[in-house]
């Protein structure tokens, strides 16, 4: 992995895109596993080839997955990290960290889309609870209503970056904090300049079609990210 700002290319559904992410200089790729609302979701069995010998670390994303199923996922896929899109129970995080010490635990926390109200104090308490539980990284993402249901991850929607910066500044230095939600090659430079996150996590912003990455978009994104230097 390179120095500077990190990049995780999420919603990876096939080997070609995983290899493309590595070739273009991404630091991680993410695979959505058994998430009902995601059109990019794979079963554990279908995800196995992506995790067998990845060129860069592979992260498995889950949502409200039963604890026994999470353990089965870890045992079968051996991911670099498990990223919880839903809020993981503190006791379960502690258990996973003890039982599977080589697997990192990442927690996504979702803000509303830009223009919608957010309870900053409540969000900070939730974030601090995850930190205390021992997660290895936080990801500030955007939740959005899609077809009558809330969707977490892969929304392509931005939150209020001024609020994100305030939250991130309050927690900066505690652990890596990633920015997600509506990032694309056109706004990634502004996102980095305004927020100074540990890394950028995105999915739809570099897609040609849903579930298939676009090489030109990915290259443009990574050129911008690699041109920035951590503050």
Task: Provide structural commentary.
A hairpin with a 2-residue loop joins strand 10 (207-209) and strand 11 (212-213). The radius of gyration is 16 Å and the shape is globular. The model is unreliable at 145-153 (pLDDT under 50). It has helices at 15-23, 44-52, 67-77, 90-99, 120-133, 161-171, 188-195, 215-226, and strands at residues 6-9, 28-32, 58-62, 81-84, 104-111, 137-146, 149-152, 177-180, 199-202, 207-209, 212-213. An eight-stranded parallel beta barrel has the order 1-2-3-4-5-6-8-9, surrounded by six helices. A two-stranded antiparallel sheet has the order 10-11. It has a single domain, classed as Aldolase class I (TIM Barrel, Alpha-Beta Barrel). It contains eight helices and eleven strands. The relative contact order is 0.17.
Quick description:
The protein has an eight-stranded parallel β-barrel, surrounded by six helices. It has helices at residues 15-23, 44-52, 67-77, 90-99, 120-133, 161-171, 188-195, 215-226, and strands spanning 6-9, 28-32, 58-62, 81-84, 104-111, 137-146, 149-152, 177-180, 199-202, 207-209, 212-213. The two termini are 18 Å apart.
**Radius of gyration, taken over Cα atoms and rounded to an integer in Å:** 16 Å
What are the low-pLDDT stretches, counting only 5+ consecutive residues below 50? 145-153
Beta strands, count? 11
CATH class identity: Alpha Beta
Pattern of helices and strands: EHEHEHEHEHEEHEHEEEH
Looking at how many chains there are and whether they match, the oligomeric state comes to single chain
CATH superfamily name?
Aldolase class I
Q: Give the helix tally.
A: 8
Shape: globular
Kindly, what is the distance between the CA atoms of the first and last residues, rounded to a whole number of angstroms? Answer: 18 Å
User: Kindly state the mean pLDDT as a whole number?
Assistant: 90
Percent in strands:
15-25%
Major beta sheet summary: 8 strands, parallel, barrel
Enzyme class: isomerase
GO molecular function: phosphoribosylanthranilate isomerase activity
Family: Belongs to the TrpF family.
Organism: Desulfobacter postgatei 2ac9
């Amino acid at each position: 992995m390179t120095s500077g700002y990190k990049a995780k290319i999420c919603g990876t559904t096939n080997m070609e895109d995983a290899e493309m992410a590595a070739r273009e200089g991404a630091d991680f790729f993410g695979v959505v596993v058994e998430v009902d609302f995601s059109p990019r979701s794979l079963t554990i069995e279908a995800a196995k080839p992506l995790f067998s010998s990845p060129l860069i670390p592979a992260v498995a994303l889950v949502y409200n997955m039963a604890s026994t199923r999470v353990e089965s996922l870890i045992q079968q896929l051996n991911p670099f990290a498990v990223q919880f899109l839903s809020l993981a129970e503190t006791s379960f995080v502690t258990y996973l960290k003890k039982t599977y010490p080589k697997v990192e635990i990442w927690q996504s926390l979702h803000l509303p889309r830009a223009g919608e109200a957010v309870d900053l104090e409540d969000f900070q308490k939730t974030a601090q609870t995850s930190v205390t539980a021992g997660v290895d990284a936080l990801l500030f993402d955007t939740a959005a209503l899609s077809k009558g249901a809330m969707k977490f991850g892969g929304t392509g929607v931005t939150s209020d970056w001024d609020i994100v910066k305030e939250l991130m500044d309050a927690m900066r230095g505690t652990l890596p904090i990633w920015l997600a939600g509506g990032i694309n090659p056109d706004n990634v430079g502004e996102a980095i300049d305004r927020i100074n996150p540990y890394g950028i996590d995105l999915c739809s912003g570099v897609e040609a079609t849903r579930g298939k990455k676009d090489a030109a978009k990915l290259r443009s994104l990574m050129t911008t990210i690699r041109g920035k230097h951590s503050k």
